[in-house]
TrEMBL record:
Its cofactor is FAD. Residues 11-116 form the Acyl-CoA dehydrogenase/oxidase N-terminal domain. Residues 245-380 form the Acyl-CoA dehydrogenase/oxidase C-terminal domain. It comes from Pseudoduganella chitinolytica. This is Acyl-CoA/acyl-ACP dehydrogenase.
Amino acid sequence: MVRLHSPILDRLADLTRQIVDDTVLPHAEQVDRDGCWPEQSMRAFAAAGLLGLQVPGILGGHGQGLHALCHLTSLIGQACPSSALCFGMHCVGTAVIAAKATEHQRDRYLREIAAGRHITTLALSESGTGAHFYLPETTMTAQGDRYLLNGTKQFVTNGGRADSYVVSTVASGGAAEGDFSCMIVDAGTPGLTWMAPWHGFGMRGNSSRGLHLTDAPVPVANLLGTEGDQVWYVFEVVAPYFLMAMAGTYLGIAQAAVDLAGEHLRNRRHSHTGATLGELETMQTRYAAMWVALHKTRALVLEAAQRGDAGDPEALPFILACKADAGETAVALANEAMTICGGAAYRDNSRVAQLLRDARASHVMSPTTDMLRIWTGRALLGMPLL
């Protein structure tokens, strides 16, 4: 598909680049080193109105889709993958709320998000079902004008920092396995208990935490869609937006790896010859292969985003494949950059080493790379995904 020029997206991209230069990049090292949530970056995104990326224009947002989401997360991910993950998960949560928002949900959440006064995020993963995020064990029990939620979520990005959480549950009334409902749970809801912060190998600044829900009362008005909306929410909203946000983030990591390798090849000189590393033919071929791999993945991600936004009936395998491919490319290129940059990359907490650590998260973050490969094959063969 041919990329269409979008003045709105160009403006948003320019704004994002400015924030990255002014705020995200200066704090990126600290975010990774100390494992701290990128508060300055998220505040800057809020002040600039970028938190409303997925909010409809009529509600004060930008009304953007998959293309804008993956493009902006890639720009942020080049500087600070943790910031890209936090921003991306907020945008995915916003998209899930916006998909079937009631008037109450538009006023209570979407308008506030667009105004930069509200951060949301997803809370789907559970230790019991692992990568099968579409099979929640958290329960919701109807009680008058509210539901009582019970269960434990894991790896909640922006955990303890967001103003609301889009929580997946099993529909009430003894629904069959596989039913899937989403609820908006406000941060101050009684019965919410945060577990200790998770200290990860990579993506160290995303404030990933576990969340206990014990008879947490949530108004019926906070139910998204209808009870048991699994297929619609998982494959029409949750998965596409999540996969494109993550594909953009890992594409940003891959781009950063290529940039750092190129900088090293141009600037590192041998004292005994005066020649740069880039003058060695072996280095030229390695760098060329990195560049080709990056652009092949970028083309797939762009194709997936454009097909998804256009409602192309053939979009699903592209969307399923792009996060897996971007993750594999990010790992491969960060690893190659480690080799090209030599000893400089192996110093403690080097920028290249950080990219490799962050890239590795792609394979284990649900849906995992293996799961996405299976789903892609099934989609291409016309088979049910589940």
